[in-house]
Amino acid sequence: MSKPGQDTRRGANTTSALNGFAQNSLAGGTNYYIFLYKERIRIYSVCTLVLYHTNGHACFVPIMQNFLIRNILQRLLLLIIVSIVAHSVIHLAPGEPSEVDPSNPRMKPEDIANIRAAFHLDDPLYLQYVYWVRDLASGELKSFKDSQPVLEKIWHRFLNSLPLFICATLLVWTLAFPTGIHAAVRRGAVYDRSSTFVAYTLISIPGFFLSYLMILWVVDWLNVPVIGMRTFGMEQAQPAFQFMDRVWHLVIPSLMSAIGGMAILSRYVRSQMLEVISQDYVQTARAKGLKEESVIYRHALRNALLPFVTMFGLLLPSLIGGSVIFEQIFAWPGLGRLGYEAILARDFPVILTLNFFAAALTLAGTLISDILYAVVDPRIRLQ
Questions:
Q1: What CATH number does the domain containing 181 carry?
Q2: Are 167 and 254 in contact (CB under 8 A)?
Q3: Domain span at residue 52?
Q4: pTM beyond 0.85, yes or no
Q5: Most confident of the following: 44-53, 156-165, 215-224, 235-244
Q6: Long-range contacts for 204-208 (Cβ within 8 Å, ≥24 apart)?
């Protein structure tokens, strides 16, 4: 049995060794943190910070600080480059905005000249870029089409696209993973063959074709409208009926947007799970007598998640361009439809702003993916 003096010396030695380990971990970029409490040392694999507790004082050492600062600065620089390239390409393309098109019979030459001067269309490209950045930062950027604030238009369309995006994403990720996992576990069985056939069928059929078939079937057989965000004449109905009407109009576009993604993602999940299930550590887990659910969901699935981290991070840009076709088919006033209409009208401020936000979401998604890599797989070191 140890004496009190020995316990004190042991605690001091433990604290000294802990501090040395923390310093070496920081110098080597190791993604661990240590927690010392009552002479107990626990090492956790994380990617955020190093925490060690000595003499009742907790110290937080951010080991990802350099990584985050460096990557954020790189992405900001890349975002500026993307905006410059997009601005140059759009303005160098042939054609004019519909509001200043000389072939427009409703516009007089003096009106066209005034509009061009108001929107700086006759200035050099670099000045037009400076004006666009200035107006975007100040919130005074106006649309060529209706002279409405661009940020306000995008915000309203964003609120319309957000429910559609969330519902479609939830359908894809909650249905594709169980389908792919069960197909991998029951490889060669009837379930695997039937799910593979259905998935490849849905991948082969264009989404817009299925959408038109769904519209015809719902209208003919159920005799209910599915176009738009609400039924015409429901403005005076009770709030409960208006809510049910909005939910109904959200179901079909969300389902059509998610069908293709569910089919593709379920194939990826099946392929990745088949590769992981054949590994030695999975066979060892089964040999230890663990339940099949524990083997599949705790050991195999966790190691199969890494390829899907990239896909999850790239979900953000799909908020803008992921449902252009379905928003157009179902007359859903979202961001994708706004961009499509802006391209037809050559509404430069709206096109450039949507492209800027899409690039920002893409870069943010890649940064989130890099961080999630270290969370899913502790072997990855963020340096």
A1: 1.10.3720.10
A2: yes
A3: 4-63
A4: no
A5: 156-165
A6: 207/256, 207/257, 207/259, 207/260, 207/325, 207/326, 208/325, 208/326, 208/329
